[in-house]
Amino acid sequence: MDTLATWHQILEQRDPARLGEILAEDCVFLSPVVHTPQEGRELTTFYLTGAMHVFNDSFHYVKEVVSGDHAVLEFVCDMDGIVVNGVDILTFDASGKITEFKVMVRPLKAVNLLHARMKAMLEQLAS
Amino acid sequence: MDTLATWHQILEQRDPARLGEILAEDCVFLSPVVHTPQEGRELTTFYLTGAMHVFNDSFHYVKEVVSGDHAVLEFVCDMDGIVVNGVDILTFDASGKITEFKVMVRPLKAVNLLHARMKAMLEQLAS
Fold first, then answer.
1. Own/partner pairs for A35-44, CB < 8 Å, 24+ apart?
2. Does the reported pTM lie above 0.90?
């Protein structure tokens, strides 16, 4: 399975409904803000859907470092004049599905902005 | 040149004096906290020296994703009960020297703790 190609398609088409194709059932999401892992495909889908709504069209990847069971995708996104620079760190199982989706962001201003935006978006999605 | 092997030696021996062996003259340091790049081997050495003083012996790498001109080293460090989880994202020139050293950290608590500790350490080193 070409998980990364599918992931890029999902992002381009803003189609979170297809996340089930690439996330393992026991996938864990690790946010840039909170320490506690969010466990399971459902919660991971919830967070990634939120992120797809929060990031605008300026979001694009600038590096893709892949080796073995891991891929690191570095992105940049301009949010109201603040440059959000981050990485998606993916871990794959033997079948190529994503078992861990970890996000880190810099600089501090961007972490704080993303924190506020994601909180509002997740509350909206959950209501 | 095996830059990564030298980097691991420098860290193990806490020997920032050897950073000149692996940093390109025009190396740029990008901090997890501040947007503005810190330009040049001297400033990069200053920041990495500060980091080596701030991180304790619990610092260790948990992933090494290397491909082409890039290496992503994921680390974990326990600082006073707060788990600092981060990545060093390195870019190499044709001779294998590091031209960009970028750091990102999660979660937010860890970014704030590192911010405070690095600020105090860099002021001490500069005085």
1. A35/B83, A35/B106, A35/B107, A35/B109, A35/B110, A44/A19, A44/A101
2. yes
